[in-house]
Amino acid sequence: MNFSKTYDVIIVGGGHAGCEAALASARMGASVLLLTISMDKIAAMSCNPAIGGLAKGNLVKDLDALGGEMAKNIDASCIQLNVLNMRKGAAAQSSRAQADKAKYAYRMTETLLNQRGLDVKQAVVSDIITENGAAAGVKTLCGQTFYGGKTIICSGTFLKGKIYIGASFQEGGRAYEPASVELSDSLALLGFEAVRLKTGTPARLRADSIDYSRLAPYDTGGDKRPFSFETEKLPPLEGRCWSAYTNEETHRIVRENLSRSLYYSSADKGIGPRYCPSMEDKVTKFPDRSRHQIILEPEGEASGEVYPNGFSTSLPVDVQLAAYRTIEGLENCRFTRPAYAIEYEGFQPTGLYSSYETKKVKGLYFAGQINGTSGYEEAAVQGFMAGVNAVLSLDGREPFTLGRDESYIGVLTDDLVTKGIDEPYRMFTSRGEYRLRLREDNAEYRLLDYGRRLGLISEKRYKRFSEEKASVEKEIERLKSVSVKLNAGNRAVLEKEGVYMNRGQSAYDFLKRPEGSYDMLKKMGLGKLEGRAALQAETMIKYSGYIAKQNEDVARFARLEKRKIPADFSYDGIAGLRREYAEKLEKIRPSTLGQALRIPGMSLAAAAILDVALKKAGKN
Ligand SMILES: Cc1cc2nc3c(=O)[nH]c(=O)nc-3n(C[C@H](O)[C@H](O)[C@H](O)COP(=O)(O)OP(=O)(O)OC[C@H]3O[C@@H](n4cnc5c(N)ncnc54)[C@H](O)[C@@H]3O)c2cc1C
């Protein structure tokens, strides 16, 4: 069966990367086909029922400011939401929401099905079709052929996935879903070399088998701000999490049964994330720890299932249950689904350009877990970037990339394509060198213009933002000439908040003090803004000194980032450039001198030689 319709973009996989890729490319006006193994599993959350967290929340906010969907989707389906690190400054704050998994997936599916220009079909893609070395379409296991200008693979943990529980293993891309074997073979034929990676998930517990009277509520506190700058109202936030702890008995059971875990005892296993260890790893790597915290997170309003965050394992099911039941409050717990480990194929992202196009096959893009990352948020932003770039390249427009100083999306992309991965990559705030700029609160200030130019931001939203921005800028200027006088009324406000002042100062300088807040200015009758605009004015003023310093660093590196390296630049025969550096540069093919300098092991001297060679080539 041949479907002769030629799509502009074909997307393989309806996970978090695939959904954003499909929506972004269709919303930019392309004709798009999304093929996925099961229509019932679109936007499924394979592991924890949560979106966001430190640095991950920033990714979601940035995606929202560019015109992505994840933020709106979680706002509509969350059952709890908190801004983490409220006691720290704005740059350390990130949002995290508990999702109703079923609602999350349902709403995203509905959004895809209602998107103009987007066809969604259930099919297992088995082959990538190429013509003259460029992607030209895909074939499916049941014999269909679809032609398309660009192809984006977002196959997650499915490529030659193997699921391990105890002494058994079976092929699978996720529990009870088939692995993608033929697609992996097709990619191998095109010359892609896979690396094997792994991850794991805890068992799911019946909510009514947990004795909550023996557990403490787990509440991170924090404001309830929506993820999306467009969301006006959140659903009722009634989901509650609980804190539990493993103990010596739990650890004894796990330790004594390590040999019964084929996955754990096998020498030949994929690389797992160090930051997210299984219980087997925890008891062996931290033998002195007498307990580990487990957070019990509801999977949804009506699901009746609970996710015990922190207790992933691939031990046999009877051992898993015995170990879980040693935990106070879980003595009579029952499983709905056992825990398991999964090993799957990914590809070194150094084989990609910053546009997520593969260097090997023109018009073929990879996004999400296939690039060695882990996490819904990391996958979603890559899908978005790949979708946007696939559309831009249809008519030869410049790729859309973000700098490390502009967004954690820029940090993620640059880390992936420049350094590659040695374990599943997740975003941490520590990966960004310009953290003070990359705050959640100013995502629209950094990125909305880009989203608008891509055609992904409505004029209504842009107008709302422009008005807010203008009012914030005006207020910041006004506060420079307003004084906080030490009259009786102001003194009362200051005393109540525990702020000591021995003389008056401008409202602007008052806000620069760590303890000064816009809220206090309002109580003194000196602040004119409300809500988000008020918070933005306060944050901009508070950070202004630090940001000015950081801007100097950005400017210093900007010269390196501006020095573009042509895609066909030859590193052969550059006088004075050692062979090992030439090989590294040839492999990564950096797009700027700045990126070249970030290649692991690259020396300043080599970058200087390259700089001279680029200047010379430019003159010629
Ligand atoms: C067991 C397990 C535990 C995990 N634990 C964690 C964790 O603790 N923390 C964390 O951050 N992340 C975890 N993850 C990873 C998280 O699920 C992924 O990072 C995220 O879902 C990746 O999104 P994606 O879009 O790249 O892929 P996925 O969400 O995996 O989606 C892939 C999609 O591709 C489709 N597909 C695959 N092959 C084909 C084909 N040939 N044809 C058509 N469609 C195809 C699938 O049907 C699926 O819809 C875990 C995943 C699993 C499976």
Identify the overall geometry: globular
Oligomer: single chain
- What Rg, in angstroms, do the CA atoms define? 26 Å
Uncertain residue ranges: none
CATH class of the largest domain: Alpha Beta
Helix content: 25-40%
CATH architecture of the largest domain: 3-Layer(bba) Sandwich
Name given to the CATH homologous superfamily of the largest domain: FAD/NAD(P)-binding domain
Give the strand tally: 22
* First-residue to last-residue Cα separation: 53 Å
Describe the largest sheet: 7 strands, mixed
The averaged pLDDT comes out at 94
Number of helices: 20
Beta fraction: 15-25%
Bound molecules: flavin-adenine dinucleotide
Could you say which structural class the secondary elements and strand pairing correspond to?
alpha+beta
Number of domains: 4
Describe the structure.
The protein is α+β, with helices and mostly antiparallel strands and 620 residues long. The protein has 20 helices and 22 strands. Strand 7 (125-131) and strand 8 (134-140) form a beta hairpin. Helix 2 (56-66) packs parallel to helix 10 (376-394), helix 2 packs across helix 12 (443-453) and helix 12 packs antiparallel against helix 13. The longest helix has 32 residues, at 531-562. The model has no long low-confidence stretch (mean pLDDT 94). The structure holds flavin-adenine dinucleotide. Flavin-adenine dinucleotide binds next to helix 1, strand 2, strand 12 and helix 10.
